[in-house]
Design goal:
single chain, 410 residues, alpha/beta, 13-stranded parallel beta sheet, 15 helices, 36% helix, globular, F-box domain-containing protein
Length: 410
């Protein structure tokens, strides 16, 4: 019975039926129950609000009426809101209607928004600069902001992008930009600087395009806040970028980095970055996509502090990876969690067979200390799932680890 009550799956199931008072009592049992109870409390106290106004004005009206009828109880019950704003109104009249709804909604519960995703397609209408600023004036407690800008140039964006932000609690900024960069000066001065200047608690920067991440890092450095940055997610610098003077190599307190390797020519810059931060990183993720026939080898240096290692394989076969895979040789004495995300079962099998094929005694000993191994497929179904034989094989490499499989991406 004691084993059952300490089983993570049973605990989660029990807590899924528990009231708030029961969660409080369960959290006092022991550290494991406390951890699961806290996670469950966070889960039920966070509301994900999808404010996509291109086709659901009627649903929004109903939601706002519900908030009004509840007399503020929804705000009390759900102290953390995750909101997604998608600006795609089909006409000027609909656009004005959308903005009125947004302002009304944010005045009611904007102070509770912790995560915000803004998606704008500028070919289909957009808010004015004044409307943007009116919307965001209520978001004093936002901690995670994701801005996705589509289809336009920096100069076109500058005509309406807000020149004033007030984000004193912002910790994570995720920026997506699919348009053309005529000059990094416009991107830095008009788009990046006003937001970064107001985010004095910023610790995490995410931008998959390195040519866009560079001006973001420059602004952070110019404002004297490079020492605050702890996590960066970006593409590996492409060929022609001089890494010796790169700001990416001079972030003093960087503890987590995720690098996206798209071509074999990105591998050399990745090797330089990994070597530079080998003694500082506690968490590392490498995303491998694209294809090449070049014989570029990813060199895994010894990382004395690394606790979490993630690998994402975005190609259907091992042969299409933008680098040559060799056996794991780096020393990782503190590694606790290993994550592997792949398109399909075969590349997951092939990748593991390759890197674990000829382990030395020291590496084998270090893998014995790993506590959790996660294998996840993009499309897990009956024909494409991690099989028992593979799990048993991995258990030999990680004898003391909990092996977890599934289809959920990080």
């Amino acid at each position: 019975m004691e084993d059952v009550l300490n089983n993570e799956l049973y605990i989660k199931k029990i807590l899924s039926f528990s009231s708030l008072n029961e969660l409080k009592i369960c959290s006092l049992l022991n550290s494991k129950w406390n951890k699961e109870a806290v996670e469950r409390l966070h889960e039920i106290s966070t509301t994900h609000l999808n404010l996509d106004y291109s086709n659901n004005h009627a649903r929004l009206r109903a939601y706002l009426r519900m908030v009004e009828c509840a007399g503020g109880r929804i705000v009390t019950q759900h102290p953390n809101l995750s909101a997604r704003l998608k600006f795609e109104p089909r006409s000027r009249e609909e656009q004005d209607d959308t903005i009125l709804f947004l302002v009304d909604a944010f005045l009611k519960f904007g102070q509770n928004v912790r995560t915000l995703l803004i998606s704008v397609d500028f070919n289909k209408g957009l808010p004015t600069r004044a409307q943007y600023m009116e919307l965001f004036s209520t978001l004093q407690n936002i901690e995670r902001l994701r801005v996705s800008l589509q289809n336009e140039t920096c100069l076109q964006i500058s005509s309406y992008y807000p020149f004033y932000w007030n984000l004193p609690s912002l910790k994570e900024f995720w920026f997506e930009f699919s348009g053309q960069i005529e000059g990094s000066e416009v991107l830095s001065r008009v788009i990046v600087n006003p937001l970064i200047s107001s985010a004095k608690q910023l610790t995490t920067l995410i931008c998959e395009r390195y040519d866009v991440m560079r001006p973001i890092l420059r602004e952070v450095k110019k404002l004297g806040r490079l020492g605050q940055i702890e996590e960066i997610v970006t593409g590996s610098p492409p060929p022609g970028v001089e890494l010796t003077d790169s700001i990416l190599l001079n972030v003093p307190h960087l503890s987590h980095i995720e690098l996206i390797i798209r071509t074999s020519k990105d591998v050399s810059s990745t090797n330089v970055i990994l070597t530079e931060y080998a003694d500082r990183l506690t968490s590392l993720c490498l995303t491998l996509e694209g294809s090449s026939n070049d014989e570029n080898v990813l060199i895994f240096p010894s990382m004395q502090k690394l606790r979490i290692l993630g690998i994402k394989l975005r190609t259907p076969t091992l042969l299409q990876l933008p680098l040559t895979i060799k056996a794991w040789t780096g020393s990782l004495p503190k590694l606790q969690i290993f994550k592997l995300y792949a398109n399909n079962r075969q590349i997951c099998h092939d990748f593991c067979s390759k890197i674990f094929s000829s382990l030395g005694a020291e590496t084998e000993y270090q893998l014995c200390q790993v506590a959790k191994v996660i294998f996840s497929l993009e499309d897990a179904n009956e024909e494409n799932e991690i099989d028992t034989e593979f799990i048993n094989q991995m258990q030999n490499y990680f004898p003391n680890a909990q092996i977890i499989t599934g289809s959920k991406n990080p």
